[in-house]
Design brief:
2 domains, homodimer, Rossmann fold, 6-stranded mixed sheet, 334 residues
Chain lengths: 334, 334
């Protein structure tokens, strides 16, 4: 196992120490009790607090998205392991500015159960909590860690757009509804050229042959739709984009946000090659890419591969996407 | 070779097509003649044009740094291959707004010779050109492609700081002097856990054993100082930081910008672990990290590893670093 780490069991704590030292202008990191990251000025009075969380190993998601205009807090679990309800509860309390708190939950069984428990505990303490589950992955119906579709790339877009709505001081019910609508209009699929190695496991999660790839893979290396011999970027992009486009379905005349995501070990040069193919496919179907995001934003440690997310835009989504954001992982206008 | 590409010989052209389609608000990509990327509003009248360029495979550098507040143009060569003088000449002409043009050149023999030739050709056409060579890598004196030290991480910082000075409409001599001063006050060193594979070569540039790493490696896989068994992040950070700190030397009381760069295949979680170690080392020497940059900004395709750059700050560097920038690869304030 070749990693820039000290002891495998210390990776998450040391990463959080790094974040705390690097970004005190953006966030505070709580490490005395349950681990969580909150924006530096939390709680913001009168603003809905927006929280997400999940296993570590997907950086910059979620901790890198804490800041003005996006998340109020993130709860990092161990690598590829759900955070605990007490992390979520403490984060919920830390961001409660009196306007309620929204939990954005990726659809993995552990995350969903733990966020539900945390929401119940927070409500018992008098905090209004709503939760939205993200399940945008069209690859498989059920999978290793999930009943129903998995939550993947649309999570990043939901956090940005929902965070912007909360920043405008919209009420909780409205912020939650926007988040649900982003999920309803977003679809994703991913693929892997290589596996990744969880630090405390010390060996690759799965094996792929020298000339093999896997289509429809999850962000924890969960099995996808199919393994097949390596294909060209044009063919791979088609294999990802077609099920996405057909599922919603996206139609001629639609405006979309196209998100080409790197899984952690794939260089940017290849993501732009994929974006180029995706732009051709969308054009061929009369779909206009009005906004885009290209880079490693929801990763799977050092896995090589990519995922594509398409979000059908409306004027409100576009305005909220364009709104200023200031986080370590995503920043503009501030 | 596992890559998200079509034909190896088309990688750079297709990447540029992807950039052109993704970022028309930021850049124009010229592909009819010699390849180059210029900011969308080039030439900006009365502003010094700032250009860089080099082999592809180091993305987002340099094309991802074209935009307001940073580069006016970038010339991408083939992967790990210097761009040609005609690319640099055409880019120079395209950004000439009457105030002269600065060439920021990483110290590799091919880049230096070709930029010199381009500068001569541009001068023959009546354009005032200055050039600054970046040579911040303390690892080795001479190397495979270089006489003297190689230009690495300080290039990113020089492009940002110099670009901000040009944006303020400072004259060419002043902009060039600021660039020289950044180089004079910046030091870097890198390391690799794995090799990378140049697309048209089809096999790894070098081999590293299962438990082996290389310290002092260049961004094209050029040999470094030494190969050794894999060490912890704390030990690796010490091996990189000590030669950097001792070289300038950085002294107690100094304020620095600390740049922890990923080589392309290393996930962000590990870069924050390294940053955490670097912060301890700097603190131990009485050096204050006043600004930082953490992520993959000057990469070596999918190589796993990292580099550290320290830049001794002064008030002017800090102000110019903080100035607004709007590029695909680096953005704040706009």
């Amino acid at each position: 196992m070749k990693k820039l780490i000290n002891k495998p069991e210390d990776v998450v704590a040391e990463e959080l120490q790094g974040i705390a030292q690097a970004h005190p202008d953006l966030v505070r990191v709580s490490m005395d009790g349950p681990f969580y990251i909150v924006r530096a000025d939390a709680p913001v009075q009168g603003k809905v607090g927006v929280i997400s969380g999940g296993g570590s190993g997907h950086e910059p998601m979620h901790g890198g998205f804490v800041g003005v205009g996006m998340l109020d807090a993130a709860c990092p679990g161990a690598v590829f392991t759900s955070p605990t309800p007490d992390q979520m509860l403490e984060a919920t309390k830390a961001v409660n500015g009196g306007a309620g708190v929204l939990h954005i939950v990726k659809n993995y069984t552990g995350d969903v159960l733990n966020f539900e428990m945390a929401a119940d505990l927070a409500r018992a303490e008098g905090i209004t909590v709503e939760a939205v589950v993200i399940d945008d992955d069209v690859a498989v119906k059920d999978s290793l860690y999930t009943a129903g579709r998995r939550g993947v790339g649309a999570t990043v877009l939901a956090e940005k757009i929902t965070g912007a709505a909360a920043e405008q001081r919209r009420p909780l019910a409205e912020v939650a509804e926007i988040c649900r609508q982003v999920n309803a209009n977003g679809r994703s699929m991913g693929m892997a050229l290589t596996s990744c190695t969880v630090p405390h496991a010390g060996k690759p999660t799965f094996e792929l042959g020298e000339n093999e790839m896997e289509i429809g893979i999850g962000i924890h290396g969960e099995p996808g739709r199919t393994r097949m011999p390596l294909k060209t970027a044009a063919e791979i992009t088609e294999l990802l984009a077609t099920p996405i486009l057909d599922d919603l379905p996206f139609k001629s005349g639609d405006e979309v946000l196209a998100f080409v995501n790197g899984m952690g070990g794939t260089p940017l040069i290849e993501l732009y090659v994929v974006y180029n193919e995706l732009a051709k496919i969308c054009k061929g179907r009369g779909i206009k890419i009005a906004r885009n995001l290209i880079g490693p934003y929801i990763t799977s440690l050092e896995m090589a591969g990519c995922s594509i997310t398409l979000l059908k835009l409306n004027d409100e989504f576009t305005r909220l996407w364009d709104a200023p954001v200031k986080t370590a992982g995503l920043r503009w206008g501030l």
